[in-house]
Amino acid sequence: MKIKIKDLEKKLGYKIKKNFISVGFDCATTTGVGIISTTKTYAIIDWTLIKFETNNKQELYKRMYQEFKKCISPDTDCCVVEDVFFGMNPDTTIKLSRFGGLVLANAIDKKVHFETIGAKSARAKLFKLDYKKYKGKSKQAVADYLKKLGIKIEEDNVADGLILAILGVIDGIDFRSKKEIAKAKKRK
User: Fold this and answer.
1) Which residue from 24, 59, 63, 120 puts its CA 20 to 30 A from 179's CA?
2) Taking a C-beta distance cutoff of 8 angstroms, is the pair 119, 25 a contact?
3) What domains are there in the chain, each with its CATH number?
């Protein structure tokens, strides 16, 4: 899908980096990957969904590493990985952090700049979530937001990956959370 950078900048309220490639990863056993490459005039937006099905942990990690390697081209300028939210199940948190670590390892191997950001912070950089309307449906909220930008997706599991990729192409974006930014200002 192709969108004029001027149009995207108006809708986002941010300047977009030109001639840049950003890849966003929402890591899980069903990983959503957003890929945005820009020219001087257009943002070319693509995505993929990668499903990993195996009961063998070692095989799962090996397959993830290999698949994530394919998503990061030598021309990639930035990878943005969704940070792990510590939920109720520590085993899930550990597993998800390992998945993200596999993306980071690939980025490091290929000398690609990377950032991490929590899902809530990533969304907050772009839009205000209506918690009443979207209670328990944050991926749907993101999909609806993407639709407003002119990005129509059929599978909402790629929604957060696209948000992360969008953040990667925004010029001057601060990946820290509002809380981290506020703490840094207080220290000064």
Assistant:
1) 24
2) no
3) 2-187 (3.30.420.10)
> What string of DSSP letters covers the chain?
-EEEHHHHHHHHTS-B-SS-EEEEEE-SSEEEEEEEEE-SSEEEEEEEEEE---S-HHHHHHHHHHHHHHHS-TT--EEEEEEPP--S-HHHHHHHHHHHHHHHHHHHHTT-EEEEEEHHHHHHHH----TTTTTT-HHHHHHHHHHHHT---S-GGGHHHHHHHHHHHBTT---S-HHHHHHHHHH-
For the chain (188 residues), the mean pLDDT of every run of 10, in chain order, is 96 97 96 97 97 93 97 96 84 91 97 95 90 84 93 91 98 90 84
Contact status, residue 166 vs residue 150, Cβ threshold 8 Å: no
pTM confidence score: 0.93
Q: What is the pLDDT of residues 60-110, one digit of tens each?
A: 999 999 999 999 998 999 999 999 877 778 888 899 999 999 999 999 999
